[in-house]
Amino acid sequence: MKSIVNRIVVVIMVGALASVAAFGKTHKHRVTFENDIKVNGTVVKKGSYDVKFDDATGQLSIIKNGKTVAQTMAKLEARAKKANGFQLRSVGAGDETELTGLTFGGSDKDVVITNGSATTTGSN
């Protein structure tokens, strides 16, 4: 009887730890912008950046050389199927191109930028 109770306790603990690990996942991808692009009104100069999204907080960050260049809030929306690779979505052209969302490779969710919440930090 004691052995069964111990096994049940172990199974419950493993399940609890696994569920905690499922929350708050951070996704990161290296991207090169061929042209300047706006992130909710913040201009991000062309070049290579790390794009990071935190599921728990809904914060999308554009980072260059370890410094955050732009941050904005975003939300996850379900996709019909998993993405084959990393995808960026934008609207406009030239100097008026604005990032509207992205998808990390293998994900079944799109990251969609919510309007009116961009902030800029650092200098570039």
Topology, element by element:
Blueprint: H1 2-22, E1 26-33, E2 37-39, E3 42-44, E4 47-54, E5 59-64, E6 67-78, E7 87-91, E8 98-103, E9 109-113, E10 119-120
Antiparallel strand pairs: 1-4, 2-3, 4-5, 5-6, 6-9, 6-10, 7-8, 8-9
Q: What does this entry show, briefly?
A:
With 124 residues, this protein is an alpha+beta fold. Helices cover 17% and strands 47% of the residues. The longest helix has 21 residues, at 2-22.
Query: Radius of gyration from the CA trace?
Result: 19 Å
Percent strand: over 45%
Structural class: alpha+beta
Distance between the termini: 65 Å
- Outline, from the CA principal axes? elongated
**Estimated helix fraction:** 10-25%
Order of helices and strands: HEEEEEEEEEE
| Largest sheet, strands/sense/barrel | 8 strands, antiparallel
What is the residue-mean pLDDT, rounded to a whole number?
81
Number of domains: 1
The counted number of beta strands is: 10
Unreliable segments of 5+ consecutive residues: 117-124
Number of helices: 1
